[in-house]
Amino acid sequence: MIYPKNIKLTIERLKEVPSTNSYLAELCKESKAKEFHTIIADHQTAGRGQRGNTWEAESGKNLTFSTVLFPTTLEAKEQFYLSMTIAFAVVDALGSYTDGFSIKWPNDIYWKDKKIGGILIENELEGKFISQSIVGIGINVNQEAFHSSAPNPVSLIQIIGVPIDRKELLNKILRGIMGGYIFLETAYSQAVPNIRQLYTQKLYRKEGFHLYRDKEGTFLAEYQNVEASGHLVLKDEQGNLRRYAFKEVEFILP
Ligand code: BTN
């Protein structure tokens, strides 16, 4: 099926900006951004992460960028399919350099037990549909040492030992996002099982029992499901299903 909207990728490169997500949100407010308008910055002075955290990245070494989507078919209650699409595109692009990347629910990007990247998706709603989605992605690329409080960072250069062309990685990720997103937009019911399968295949700790912590304490559980809403379902050692929204459960890392 032909995509009904005329998508043209435009990339705006900035030396420094507080946050590419915030900058792009301002452009959208002023109706100055078309779909897939992408902002990439060498340095963010106030990069934002999930849960109100900051996102720190050494200037000129990493990938910090945002792009905007204006979905037409995506209901808020199934918004996690977009998140799955984005996370898979990132992991798939990284997988072209080496093995070992995965998605830690909901959409942290991991290499083994370390975090190499994060995704911050900020949606706007019109009725029950998502009308605008600003997708912000931060990947540790050529940064060789980490001094922030982030617990377990790793970068691509630390993994493969040579510097990576950031432009090439950006293009791989954007191409992947475009492919998945157009699939979702044009053939939603075929795309959903496909995207779910790709995401699940890449999930961190998708097999076996692992340690988690919720408000009741620490427990061992195995992965069961991620719902369209984004809830994670775990099965504990007693066979009980435990369902969590983002922030309600923590992975205990080795
Ligand atoms: C996380 O906490 O894991 C999400 C991090 C997202 C960081 C990216 S960097 C580009 C974009 N602009 C921001 O301010 N945040 C996102």
Quick recap:
The chain is an alpha+beta fold and 254 residues long. It has 5 helices and 12 strands. Helix content is 26%, strand content 32%.
User: Which structural class fits the helix and strand makeup?
Assistant: alpha+beta
Order of helices and strands: EHEEHEEEEHHHEEEEE
Please report which band the strand proportion falls in: under 5%, 5-15%, 15-25%, 25-35%, 35-45% or over 45%: 25-35%
Query: Could you list the spans in which at least 5 consecutive residues all have pLDDT below 50?
Result: none
The geometry reads as globular
Number of DSSP-assigned strands: 12
Residues in helix, %: 25-40%
- For the record, give the distance between the C-alpha atoms at the N and C termini, rounded to a whole number: 46 Å
